[in-house]
Amino acid sequence: MAEVIVEEKGKGGKKRAKKVVPRLDMTPMVDLMCLLITFFMLVGALSKSKVMDIILPERIKDPTKQEAPRISASRTLNILLGPDNKIYTYPGAVKPEEYSAVPPVLPPLAETDFSAEGIRKVLLERNRTLARRIAEFNQQVLSGKMPLSQDSARNYVSRMKTDDDTGPIVLIKAYKDANYGNFVDVLDEMNICGIARYTFVKIAWYEEKMVEAAAGIASTTTASTN
Amino acid sequence: MPKIKLPHRSPHIDMTPMVDTFAVVLTFLLLTTTMRQPEPANVDTPFSISEIKTPDFNTMTFLLAPDGKVFMNFDNGPDTILKYRPKILAEMGKRYGIEFTETELRNFEMQKSSMGVPIMKMKEWLSIDDNNLKKTLQTGIPMDSTDNQLANWILYARQVNPSIQACIKGDTKTQFLVVEKLLDILQEKNVNRFSLITSLEAAKINLEEIQQ
Predict the structure, then answer these.
(1) In chain A, pLDDT over 90 holds for what percent of residues?
(2) Secondary structure (3-state) at A211
(3) Domain-embedded: residue B48
(4) B38 within some domain
(5) Which residues of A touch B206 (CB under 8 A)?
(6) A173 with A207: CB under 8 angstroms?
């Protein structure tokens, strides 16, 4: 693709060995490099995956020395991840005398889904004050009214969350047919709604029964043993 | 007045400096992008709104395939002389009475993708070069209560590199039982903080939605 430009000399002159200035046309090369650079920049920016941090409460190894933390039942919201991407919720807790009764007295479950109208609405309803404060704060940061770096804004939000004592305490429990995507989705929903206190706990046998009753699955024998 | 004759010449821009700068930028980008390693299992990570970047070093990543196999990967540390990977393998070998040679350890160090080989088959896995054969040996790390190799991998990884962080990379369709088992094993080893690897998704809630 070398374009050799030879200047025409006046006609009729003696034929001489002309001084040739070889000149490479670099335009295609530049084009190609431009493409490659764009490609690598995009790949570099987009391929990096993100992480979501979750901290679980420390396992109680010796139940005789340590007691499980007590939480108020009125603030508790239980989220049970069921089969087929369904979510079941119930407020409060089931008392020991209720689930050990024969037949056990179990609270009804409310069924929702992962859409914006489903679980998000349930969570926002219970977490309105904190969610509004966080949203207002984020708006101020985004609009530039409050000049803060990303890190300090994040710190401010996490401080708002620790100071909050009205929002729900969400306990996430997974039925054995749930999948990992459900789990991440529900944790993501916690972040979206600005829930201050949530954790993942093991599902209790009576809660498995509740899910089975709500989803219409035949009860399994392994569920009732522990 | 004589006319001023402009020399008839085609405009020609010298592109050499442009090519130079482009070449520099291109080399830089080529060197900084890390090639994604082919993983032993295809995993579609779930989406989240989190914007925290995956750490480059001091991570142990658990790959949870949709069929329930568990693979594990850890890095060499921020500095190549630290050689965390061969050290962890050597510790594992000691625990199971297998002695690994220098070349095997170096082989393991160079391995970039996740591994899911039972420790008994590790020697065989390291000795073959064929990728397809390698794949057939990747049956997932055993994590039953009778033969909990995963727990030992975690133990030695944390012993060799105390600042290691646990990352979980699971497929959306992975059964939660597998995840729960992994979380159990990690918590038994006093790891209570996990990073779940996700892809970025934009989700926004506006003020009106909350104020309703």
Answers:
(1) 2
(2) helix
(3) no
(4) no
(5) 135
(6) yes
From the list B18, B54, B210, the residue facing A49 with the nearest CB is B54
> Does any CB of chain A come closer than 8 Å to the CB of residue B31?
no
Domain, as residue range, for B175: 66-200
pLDDT tens digits for range A138-171: 888 888 887 878 788 888 888 888 887 778 888 8
**Residue B84 domain flag:** yes
Domain count for chain A: 1
A108: in domain: yes
Is B36 in Cβ contact with A33 (below 8 Å)? no
Instruction: Please check whether residue A81 lies inside any domain of the structure.
Output: yes
Q: Look over chain B and give the mean of its residue pLDDT values, rounded to a whole number.
A: 84
Cβ-based neighbours of A157, under 8 Å, separated by 6 or more: A134, A137, A138, A194
Mean pLDDT of all residues in B151-171: 90
Mutate to test the interface with A, among B196, B197, B201, B206 (most CBs of A within 10 A): B196
Instruction: Kindly list the residues from chain B whose CB atom is less than 8 angstroms away from the CB atom of residue A130.
Output: none
Using only C-alpha atoms, chain A has a radius of gyration, in whole angstroms, of 32
Residue pointed to by tokens 């809630």: B205
Whole-complex ipTM: 0.77
Number of other CB atoms surrounding residue B6 within 10 Å: 6
Whether B29 and A40 lie within 8 Å, measured CB to CB: yes
Smallest CA–CA distance from A174 into chain B, residue: B176
Write down the pTM of the prediction: 0.76
User: Is A41 inside a domain boundary?
Assistant: no
Which is higher by pLDDT, B34 or A22?
A22
**Number of domains forming the structure of chain B:** 1
Look at residue A7 and tell me if it is in a domain. no
Cβ-defined contact of A50 to B26 (cutoff 8 Å): no
8 Å CB contact of A192 and B12: no
Instruction: Tell me the residue range of the domain where A185 lies.
Output: 73-127+167-224
Cβ(A219)–Cβ(A212) below 8 Å: yes
What integer is the mean pLDDT of B124-149?
84
pLDDT, tens digit, for every residue of A178-201? 888 888 889 888 888 888 888 888
**Number of A–B residue contacts, CB under 8 Å:** 170
Q: Which residues of B touch A56 (CB under 8 A)?
A: 183, 187, 192-194
Q: Which CATH number fits the domain that encloses residue A88?
A: 3.30.420.270
User: Measured at the alpha carbon of residue B161, what is the angle toward residues B159 and B157, in degrees to the nearest 5?
Assistant: 55
List, as one string, the DSSP characters of A156-200: HHHHHHHH--SS-EEEEEE-TT-BHHHHHHHHHHHHHHT-SEEEE
Asked if residue B177 is part of any domain, the answer here is yes
Task: Check if B176 contacts A (Cβ < 8 Å).
Answer: yes
Which of B173, B205, B206, B212 is the mutation pick for testing A, counting most A CBs within 10 A? B205
